[in-house]
Structure formats: C-alpha cells, structure tokens
Amino acid sequence: MTVGHPVEWPEGFPYRPHLRFCSLGNENVAEVMESFRIACERLGCTTSVEATPSVDNADINLFFFAMGLGLPSNEDLPPNAIVVNFEPALPELLAEMPGYRRLLQRAWVWEYSLENLMHHQTLGILRSDYVPLTFEPQATPVLPEDQVLPDEAQDIDVIFFGETMPRRLEVLRALEASGLRVAYPIGTAWTPAQRDALLPRAKVGLNMRKADRTATAEVPRLSILLRNRKAVVSELYPHSEIPAALRDAVECCPKDELVERVRALVADAPRRRALEQAGPLALMRLPPQRDVLAGALRRYLAATSQRLIGNQAVVADSGAAVSVLMVTRNDEADVVEALASMAAQTLTPHRIIVVDDASTDGTVALIRDRMRVDPRLSGLLLLQASTPMGWAAAAQWGLSQAEGDALALWSPATPSEPNRLRVQSAFLQASPAVGAVGARSTSGPLPEMHAQILAGMLIHLPSDQQPMAMGSLMLALPRIRQRGFGFDATLGEFAWMGLLLELVRDGALLANLNVELIGGPKTRERSEPTAAQVIALAHVRERLLPLVFPALPSSDAQRLARLYGQEWAPDASDATALLRDMATACEGRRDPLVATVLRGECLRVLDVYAQNARLAPGYVSGLMAEPLLRDFLAPLGERIYSFEPHGTS
C-alpha cells in the first residue's frame, strides 16, 4: 500500500495515483470536472487536464461528458478508464445514443444520479458506482456575503443559463410577458465569464428540468446559483431526486407554477435575503466532495484489483488440490454431460464426489457406466442414499469427504468449461480474502463485487436468478473446515446460500469472475416456487439482513423480513409499513447499492397491492408527502405514480 496516502494504492497495482481528467463537453461544464479534480488532489493524487482522451498510459483516466467518445473496438475499455456520467434520463437517452450505451457497458462508470442507477442493470451497465456531485469549496468558492449587490443595483429580475429548448422557452417568455426583466442565452450559450458577469445583477435564479422524463434535479446549475448567493426558484416535484438540504434551501414548485412563484419571490426582498444565506449553508451540509471521491476511489481500486487478478487467473497455472461435489436426483438426462465436463478439466480434480439422493431413474447406472469406460472418472467416489435426504443433507455428506484447497460445486444441469477449476483455483490462491468465487455463464454477466452480490441477494428473485449460481461456485475449503461450516438442512436446496452467508459472517468476501466458465443452464419449464422454497428463501433472507444492516435492531430486522413472507396483511397501511421499514433501514445504512435494490422491492410491494385493488386514490401522493418516504422513493421517478388508482398524481 502507498504509505501516507489518504486513498491507499494496492501493492502491485499497475497504474499510478495520477489522474488524467478529460472533458468532451464545452467550457460551461468545466466547473463540474474541476470540482472532482481539486477534490482528488486534496486526497493526495496528482492530476492533469488532458485535451484529448487516451487510455494508453499508466495513469487513471477519467472522461466527463463523454457522449461523443469513439471506441476503437468492441472490447472492454482497459481497467484504467472511468467514465463519469452526468446525463439524466439514461434509458431514453441511450435509446437514442447506442454508442454511449456501449461505452457505459464497457467501462467503470461513476454515476451521479440514483434515478439512473435504478436502470443500470437493465441497461447492461454492471460496473458502476454512485458518485454524486456535492461541493468542493476550493474549486467553486462561495461568494462572500458582502459582495451581494443591493436591490437597486440588481437590474435583472430573473436569470436562467443553460440550453433553451422549447419547454424552457415557454416559461422564460411567460416571465417576460408578465413584465419581468429576464436574462437567458439566445442562440449561443453563454461562456462562464459572461454568466458570472450577469449573476450578481440578478435578483432570482431559475432552475428548470431539461425534459419531462427525468426526475433528477439539475444539481450542477443549482450549485452555481447557490454558491453565488442567488435566491432560487427550482422546478421540483415530490419525486424529484435532490439532496434534502438543497430542497429546503430553494423555492420549489412544479413547472406550471414557476412564473407565479418567481414573480412572488422577486417582490419579496426579505425572503430573498433569507434564501441567499440559506443556499451556501445547504451546500456546506452536503458530504464533502473529497470524502465522496475517497470512497469512490477505494471501491474502484478494489474492483479493478479483483478484475486484474481474474484476468491473470485465466492464463495462470494452478497447483491447487480441488475436490468436486455434485448432488444428483433423477438427472439421467444431464449427468453424462456433467461428468464429461469434470473429466475434461485442465486441472485434474483432486477428488470427485457424487452423492445420489435416491434416484429412481437411470442416473446411478449412467454414473457407474462412465466410471467404467472413462479412466479419468474411475476414482470417482459415489455415495448413494437409500431414501431421499434432500439436497442439503446430501451435500453435507459429500462435504465430509472433500479434501484439498478448494471445493467446486457442480450442477448436473449446468456444464462447466474445461478451464473452470484451473481459473477459479488460481483466483482463490491469489485472493486470500475471498471465501467463495463464482463465474458468469453464457446466459450473461453477474455482479462481480462482494457488495453488489450481497445487495443482489435482497432481491425477491426466482430461485434460479440469484446473483451467484450454485453450479459455478468454488469455496475456500480450509476456511470451511476450520470454522466447522456446512450445509444447513433447514434451508433445503438453498443451503449453499446459507453457507455463503456463514463465510460472509466470518469476514470472507464473495466474488464472481467476469469469465464464461459455465454454460447456460438447460432450458426447463419454469414453475412457480413451492411453499417450501418460499419458506427456505425467507429463512436465507432472515440471515442475510443482519449482514447487510449490522446496526439495525433485531426488532426492525424482523419487521423488514416480512418483505419475503408468503402473505401480507390486505390493508394498504401494511404496504406503507413495509415501505417505511425499507426506508428506515436504508437511512441508517446509506449504501446506494442496497437502497437501489430495496427501491426495486418497493415497486414489487406496490404492484401486489395495486393488482389486488388495495390502494385508494391519493395513496401514492400521500406517501410522497412524508419526507422519509419521499426522499427514499424519489429515485423511482414517475414510475411511482403508475400505482396511483386511475393514474392520478
């Protein structure tokens, strides 16, 4: 680690703590990048501003406003590239700009908007982190209070700067028609110098959304207005995504009330004086940009280190002793292919253990036949249950026979690539903090980092869509042996998830390799989960919640666990209680990954109650009137109102 550096640089990391900043936007957005750059320098990194984008260096390269950045190939960008996104309404934008979508899918992304973050997985943006714009006083200092011009010297009633598309021009022309003196760019955008020359002369600053489709408040403009001590009228709604401190420092209203609210504020000098003082104080209450970027850099370094180790594992040799464990029950259609993929491993398994859970078809006969004709399987240990034990008990029996450095779990229905054991064992050998590693399949990528995986386990998914796949797992066997961990029969077929949580409770990390080491699971007709499966998964989540929310009182955790129950009370008040429990838990945790997952669960809760006609008119509006729920649900944007009966809002 780099000694004395606020953000410790990993030992052997191939890139220097020098950050190259490059913006493809115009000079009007330069202050946003400068806030990040100065904050990084305060963290001890050296920085430079580059005129042209490049990744062919030993530094970390950050690209701002990169919608026009061309890519030389279809491969991922190198690990030393970070794309910083400040564009709102990503789903609609990326539908119009597929090139920018490909860029975000192939780089590490710093995302400024929680609303956007809600859509990342659907958009295929899997390497991303929430990194908001807050406040860096050394980059954008606050105007001293004694430099605010008196009313008689302010000859502009209201000022707006930014792109003047039709929805904004409608408001600006209405303000002019009402008799106010309005300043805004016409045709050509103002330079920062032109803007800064006009700002002191304005009584009121106006902040408006670019489009109806986004709920994310335009914080960069708002920050400029507040640090220049402007009284601000901002287009905001209950579902607008904005820090609570800033919401309270401006006059907020919907678009159709902007003209009336601006006129009132222009005429109310005492209110303007109060807002001119409140704005800078609100900026100071935001998390310092330096602290935000310290956390973002640590997470980037950890993720990139894991990615590099994974890349090295693909080509590395491994001398690990790996046992393989597979549980079968009536798998005659798949077992031959599964055994063939074990035999074909480029790292010969130390021991192959197959536990047959009292199959009634030809599974056992096929296993014995393969043991006879394939010398690579002749030493296979076949354990046969005379009566059905269930997956967990069968797997525990097999675990008792495992030996070596690692244990690979095999699924009869999921074939593995020949290099699976070699790559995963090499990764585990190079990653002593990791207790379990999975891999992507031909079905698509999975979350790679521990925090993403743990948060993903909170989703009420079908049992075959978990953030780690049982048939892709390799476990650190010595750690399991030393701690006496095993497969808990009370968790049924999800006992493997219980074992993962035991490893996490012991301080181990979980990881997925972004390497296709397993095939896609065989196509099977999807059926609704059984009552036993629902109960078992609920028990898994009960064990998960204290790991995700370690400071949450047990009584609160028990209430939150109702989210995964089989039945909820029929009244809408119970839906509200579930939403409030999620919001309260996330308020204490302040983890954007976890909050993003639970916001998705809010949609599930509301959908169930709406489908059963349990939500009365005005229900959602009532939710958004409660500050705790408003701030938690705001990143859902307009979607939250789709559950209002008759679509009212």
How is this structure best summarized?
The chain has 649 residues and is of the alpha/beta class. Helix content is 41%, strand content 14%.
Report on the architecture of this protein:
- The chain has 25 helices and 18 strands.
- The longest helix has 27 residues, at 289-315.
- The strands form three sheets. It has a seven-stranded mixed sheet, with helices on both faces. The protein has a six-stranded parallel sheet with strand order 2-1-3-4-5-6, sandwiched between helices.
- By secondary structure, the chain is an alpha/beta fold.
- The protein is elongated and about 95 Å long.
- β9, α8 (219-227) and β10 (231-235) form a beta-alpha-beta unit.
- The protein folds into four domains: 18-134, Rossmann fold, CATH 3.40.50; 145-285, Rossmann fold (3-Layer(aba) Sandwich), CATH 3.40.50; 317-518, Spore Coat Polysaccharide Biosynthesis Protein SpsA, Chain A (Alpha-Beta Complex), CATH 3.90.550; 549-647, no CATH class.
Structural class by sheet pairing and helices: alpha/beta
Low-confidence stretches: none
Report on the biggest sheet.
7 strands, mixed
In the sheet with the most strands, the strands line up as 14-13-12-15-17-16-18
SS elements, strand count:
18
**CATH architecture assignment of the largest domain:** Alpha-Beta Complex
Averaged pLDDT: 95
Radius of gyration over alpha carbons? Answer: 28 Å
Assembly status:
single chain
Query: What would the principal axes of the Cα set say about the shape?
Result: elongated
Number of domains: 4
Quickly name the level 1 CATH class of the largest domain: Alpha Beta
Name the CATH superfamily assignment of the largest domain.
Answer: Spore Coat Polysaccharide Biosynthesis Protein SpsA, Chain A
How much of the sequence is in beta strands? 5-15%
Briefly note the CATH topology name of the largest domain. Answer: Spore Coat Polysaccharide Biosynthesis Protein SpsA, Chain A
GO molecular function, one term: transferase activity
Pfam family, one: Glycos_transf_2
Domain Glycosyltransferase 2-like: 323-440
Protein name: Glycosyl transferase family 2
